[in-house]
Amino acid sequence: MSIILQNMAQLKALFEKQWESIAGNCDTFLYLGGNEQSSHEYVTKLLDKETLDTNTYGKSSGRNGNYSTNYQQSGRELLTPGEVRKLDNDYALLFIRGESPVIDRKLDILNHPNVAQTPDGKGARFIHGEIEGSVGSVELVRDIDPATLPAPHVPDVDYVLYSEEDLQKLFEDKEKQANEKTKQNQGAVHRRGIGS
Prior knowledge:
Elements: H1 8-14, H2 19-24, E1 28-31, H3 37-47, E2 49-60, E3 66-77, H4 81-85, E4 91-96, E5 102-105, H5 164-195
Antiparallel strand pairs: 1-4, 2-3, 4-5
């Protein structure tokens, strides 16, 4: 199942108390960009922090002047919410459970090899729900007296209705025939090899 949102505020509005549970059960999170503050903060938290080594130097002058160096480690977000907001539109952030986050270039769909099959590539428009090459249809009716039903119309088409068990047996028989034919061909090749 894929959950597609414009921003995290939509999820929070729909599921006020459970929104974190819904987002937390997703193994993959793809951030394509946006301009909503809570989404930026959510992505920043997902990215976690990096460790920075900081050196500070001190020097005092005077009669007994001294010099000191301090080493310190501090944490910083990989990207702050402001940096997430400014993310280049050519890039996306991908989070996969158990893996480090990935920043990757977005695919330009107009350069996809199958774009010619879409309206953008002068292909036919896809109509959702349109049936092409239907195999058949079944209508289940309850509580109707069969005697009151009109005689079924049978088209001039030959067809066979198989059960799941029939199909399984049919496939097993075809596989068995193919294996026997392969064995026969191997035997003929072997016999020709012996005589030569």
